[in-house]
Each structure stands twice: as structure tokens, then as C-alpha cells.
Design brief:
Elements (H helix, E strand, L loop, with lengths): L1 H57 L2 H10 L17
Length: about 90
């Protein structure tokens, strides 16, 4: 009877130790993954800031006007070229 109880306790102790080892290993894996994701998030935030700055620069009205005039050959219409349509 004592041998059976001792064997059961030994098996339970080994199983518990294996469970602790697995839990620590899994914790380390998840911690590494968390750090990788945090770094990726930070890189994406930096890229987003760059893109916002670029968008603000490209969308500036003076720049749009300059590109419309130089690349597209656009200009403001003369007063006699404007036609007002009324219902």
C-alpha cells in the first residue's frame, strides 16, 4: 500500500515538474512574441507618421497648384471664359 502511494506521489511530482517546465517555456515563447509584435507596432507607427507627413506635403494647395500649372498646363480661366448657368 505504501509503495503504491509513494509511486503515485512520485509520478504526480514528476508530472507537476514537467508542467512547470512547459509553462515556463511557453511563457518565454509568448514573451518573445510579444516583444516582436511591440517592435513591429512601433515600426508601423513610425511609418504611419512618415506617411501622414508626406500626405500633408503632397496635399498642400501651393504644391497642387504648381503641379497643375507645370505638368498639366492648367491655368485659371479668364473672366470672359466663365459662364454662369442658372436654373
Amino acid at each position: 500500500m505504501t509503495r503504491i502511494l509513494l509511486t503515485i506521489l512520485l509520478v504526480a511530482n514528476v508530472a507537476s515538474a514537467i508542467g512547470v517546465i512547459y509553462a515556463r517555456h511557453r511563457h518565454r515563447q509568448l514573451f518573445v512574441e510579444l516583444n516582436r509584435l511591440i517592435n513591429a507596432r512601433d515600426e508601423l507607427n513610425i511609418e504611419f507618421g512618415r506617411l501622414q507627413l508626406e500626405q500633408a506635403t503632397v496635399a498642400e494647395s501651393n504644391r497642387v497648384d504648381q503641379i497643375a500649372r507645370t505638368r498639366l498646363g492648367m491655368k485659371f480661366p479668364e473672366a470672359n471664359d466663365v459662364v454662369v448657368v442658372r436654373p
